[in-house]
Structure formats: structure tokens, C-alpha cells
Amino acid sequence: MTVSHTGIRVEPGSFRDPGNRVFHRDGEVLRGLDDRAAEDWRALAASGFFRALLADGKVCGTEEVTATPPWAAVLRHERIPFVSHPYEWSFGMLRDAALRHLEILRAALGDGFTTKDGSAYNLQWRGASPVFIDVGSFAPLPPGEPWAGYRQFCQTLLYPLLLQAHLGVDFQPWLRARVDGIEPDQMRRLFGGARRLLPGVLTHVHLHGAMQQRNARATTTDVRAQLRAAGYSRELASATVRGIEKLVRRLDHRPGRSHWSDYQRTCGYSAQDRQAKERFVAEAVAATGTPALALDLGANDGRYARIAARHAGYVVAVEQDPAVADELYRALRAEGERRILPLVMDLADPSPGGGWRGVERAGFADRTRADVVLALAVVHHLAIGRNVPLAEVVDQLAGLGAPGAALVVEFVHPEDPMARRLLANKPDGLFPDYRRDAFERLLAARCRITRRAELPSGTRTLYEAVVGG
């Protein structure tokens, strides 16, 4: 990130359009526009479709404020509660983000506008509702112009959906590995033979790739001229978008139930344990007042994220299993929940910084300074299941909270059935320090423990602590 002497922090991920830069000042999210971008913005602000999208909350709240040099205009945007990346989304989230993008593009085309970009990164979330954030992407549509964002849309939205819907392959590692998404050449190798006939593959993978190769030596001006000569129109562009929408709506992926999707039944909690745990968590979160951001690590079906949401302004629910996270997302979407954001992430391998110089897309730890951190039934999976030293587990949990944040953590004793199951798959004597007294000593070194409670089963202890206290 770049910080100027005026206290302005430039957003590292906004450099790709030099006439349209996002920056932060005094807690505000601002966008600076050059002369051309300012002209496009004022035309956009006067359009009926954009006002309707703003009113419906489908585009992030935006207003023009007093401009400061070197910008011709400055916009102020609403602040999204938590910034996430597409490789942290579930299948249902990525599909709904793609549909929101296409809905917005179709509305723009109907009013003589287009979007210059088609990237999944143009969308964020208010809970389980996608919102388009790249207001600077809108521009008037010149006659005969194709959608400039089609390639980005395919690589960061459509191709990942095709990969998982047709092949059952989780898309998250593919998007995490490459900020620009999946290339057509990669997709063609995966979708050869009879797979070419799967819905969407022939047109958007093979034909798209062939067109790119054919036009590789042509200039953008040449391609535009060819399309205008062929009678490419706004109506044809709208029909193309409707066709892609129809395809995306048909794509789905519902994997069979996994161990984690049935975890609440198989985890070994008694009814008394569960009631005591829920009461402890509710009291701990309530004691913080009204925290702006709560983090639920290992969220599973969202039971404790929902408890936290009774008091917190916003909750990020992190779950390792993509199928379980998707079930949670679909449930939250059906409920109309806008204060709980489910994310797919392995806590033993959290999202790093990515893109240009490793800062274009900030890592999870750099985005997270929660006021409340819930780490329930997580420690033993990291320390035993993933061989992470217990001291480093505590460091990670405490590091995700802001100074003074509340940390609610559960320690599963070595004699607990779940811990014994994990230890049975490890060599004897590998975890001599995995003990309650050692954990408590490490926690006290990083936090001030304010309360502890042993669950009725006698094999699990809950701690409430203050980070850095």
C-alpha cells in the first residue's frame, strides 16, 4: 500500500485503470477520476438504470464530493464491512456474483452503457447478498463495440463455475493461484472429447479460445471495425448477455454430505455440552457491547456465527470445507441475512497476499482485525491434525483480533474422543505439549484470561480472554 504525506492511503488493487483510483482517507473510501472518467461518471449518475441499481442496493452506495487535485472528480463509496476474494467464496456465492454482474451489465446495456471490466473482483458482499463495487467500470457504449469485460468474466467467473459444475473440481485453488483467473487454453485441455458438448463449453471455451488465437495479431481497432461491419449491435450484445445468464443459472454443484457437513451430530457433544457452550459464547460476545466485526473460525453450519450476530455488527464465518460453506451460504441467502459472510478457507493455509507485488489482493491476516474472535473446536484440528505447534496456534488466533479484542477459544483435552481419534493417526509421543496446562500458559502469555468454564463432559474447556491484555 502507498501512504502519502497527506494521510491518503492508495488502494493497492486499483492501479489497473490509471484514470480511476481508489484511496482511503480518514476512514472513507474515495475514488479519484480524471477528466474522461469524470465525464463518464456524470453521464452515469444521470441515468435511470444506475439510480435504480443504487436504490436496490445492487451497486455500492456512491456520491460525488468535493474534488481535490489532481482529480477532476472524487466519489465517496460506502465501506464494505469485510473485503473478501473470489477464491474464498463457495460455488453458490460465485454463481450469484456472476448473475449479479450480468444483471447489472444487462441493465447498463439497456440504457446505452457497458462495463469495461468483467472481473469477479468487481463484486463484494453484504452478508449473503452480492454488491457491485467497481463504479468506475461503467462507461457509455460506443456503437458496434463488444463487451470488453467478456474475457475477464470467463476467466474469473464462468470458467471456475464450469470447472466445478461439470467436473466436480473445487475452483478455489485455481483462482487463488492466478489473480487473472483460468486461461481458455487450460480449459480446452480439460474439456476435450465428449466434454466439448457440455453446456457452455463449446461456445465459451473452445470458440472463445479459437477467436482469441485468430485475432492475436489484430489490433483492438481492427476487431471493433470487423464487428461494426458485421452489424454487431446493442440488441445483439443484450441477447448474448441473456444467453450467458441462462447458462449460469443452469450450472449447479451439490456434492454428497461430508464428515464436516454432519459435524454437529458426530462431534461428540452432549445436549448439556452444547447448551453450556452456546450460553458461554452468547455471554462473551454480549459482554463486548456491540462489536463491529466478529470472526467465527471453523464455522460449520453457522450456529455460533448466528449467536455472535445477535450482538455484533458483522460476522465473518470461516469454514474449511467448501461444501459445508456452500450449505451455510444457501441457508443465509434464503434467510435474507446481510450481516453474516461465509468464507471458504483452510486456517492452516489462509489466503496470502497475491497479485502484483503480493499486495494487489491483501492476505487474510492483513484484512482481519476483529473485535471478537471465536475459535471453537479449532485448536486440536490445527495442533494435532495439522501438526502446527501449539504456541503458533495461539499466536494466530490472537493475531486475528485487534488489541483489546475478545478471544473465545475452546481447548479439547487429549482424553476427549475427538482428540483421541486425531492422536490415533499420529506417531506416539509426537505431541507431548498438547496439554491443558501448556495451552493455558501460552494463552495467558498473549492474552488476559477473564473467564474459563469446563463443559459438563469434563473433556473440553472454554476460555474468554482479552487480546494483548
What does this protein structure show overall?
- With 469 residues, this protein is an alpha+beta fold.
- Helix content is 41%, strand content 19%.
- It contains 18 helices and 17 strands.
- Strands 13-12-11-14-15-17-16 form a seven-stranded mixed beta sheet, sandwiched between helices. A six-stranded antiparallel beta sheet has the order 1-2-3-4-6-5.
- β12, α13 and β13 form a beta-alpha-beta unit.
- α6 crosses α7 and α16 runs parallel beside α18.
- The longest helix is centred in the N-terminal third of the chain and has 20 residues.
- It is globular.
- The protein starts with a strand and ends with a strand.
- The N terminus is likely disordered.
Short synopsis of the structure:
By secondary structure, this protein is of the alpha+beta class. Helix content is 41%, strand content 19%.
Spatially, the strands of the biggest sheet line up as 13-12-11-14-15-17-16
State Rg: 24 Å
Q: Structural class of the secondary structure composition?
A: alpha+beta
Proportion of beta-strand residues: 15-25%
Secondary structure: number of strands = 17
Continuous helix count:
18
Q: Main sheet, how many strands, which sense, barrel?
A: 7 strands, mixed
Poorly predicted tracts of residues: 1-5
Q: How much helicity do the residues have?
A: 40-55%
Overall mean pLDDT stands at 91
Q: What is the terminal separation in angstroms?
A: 29 Å
